[in-house]
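so my prof wants the structure for this chain in the tokens format not the other one, which i didnt know existed until like an hour ago. anyway here's the sequence
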Amino acid sequence: PGGDMMTPSTLLRALVRRGLQAGPVFFAVVALALSVTAPRARADLLVLNSAGSSSHIKRFNATTGAAMNTFGYTNEGMDSLTVTSLNEVLTNSNILGGYDLYRFNAAGEYRGTLLGGEQAGLTAATRGPDGNLYVIWRDYPGETRRIVRVDSPALTTLVAAGAGGMAAPAWMAFGPDRNLYVSDAQAGILRFDGTTGAALGVFVAAGSGGLPAGARFVFGPDGHLYVPRSSTNSVRRFAGGNGALIDEFVAPASGGLINPRAVAFGPGGHLYVTSAGTRQVLRYEEQQHEWIRPD
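here's what i got, hopefully its the right format
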């Protein structure tokens, strides 16, 4: 599958998933986003601590929870975190009103600025199944937002402002079907052709199944969407085929979960969830599962 934003390994595909149980608390942090990356044979957990000018990314061992290092770049605040199929770490930050996109390697070493400047207004970035970089771009003046493919130094529009009802895109990911899914604060989750950008309709309508506005979802190894829901302190699962609500994958307050902000899948299919209300990251394990190899 072609998604990059916080996506898990696809060596195995989950066929049946149910009966989650809260696992141990790993580390105490204030987190707005997290991602799992796997350099070599080890998986690392990256946690974005966004606190104004002191924003930084903390790296932990995703299995043991051991702290490894902290990295970042001088800025006024970072608000997104992506690990791509190239094993690069991308984060955007506010610099004097513009938004720069920084790149680091998996060890946290700075590898330069991909995009930036006062004219920039990017809010999220990911690599597509074609290997190209895609960003949610905000145009000045007017505050209109579109999704562009970065053909450095040029920008090519994939999804125009307003297309398919897109008004306030906040997050996006390519799905297992190679189409682009966009979380819009007003319209819900929209689906677009990943190659042409043609609108394919509303995938999950705003508020349907308790979908929060601008949800930072992730595709799981079973191909379904997982969405943190702060108002109920839970994580909900939506069908990857038609967007219908399947279940409350993590029950309200399970394991002490309060105000979940982001989710990621890590080693063994475990689900990691930021619990901003308790300044923690929680790991959840399956009690019953059945594995099959992908087709």
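also thought this was worth mentioning. The CA atoms of residues 42 and 113 lie 26 Å apart.
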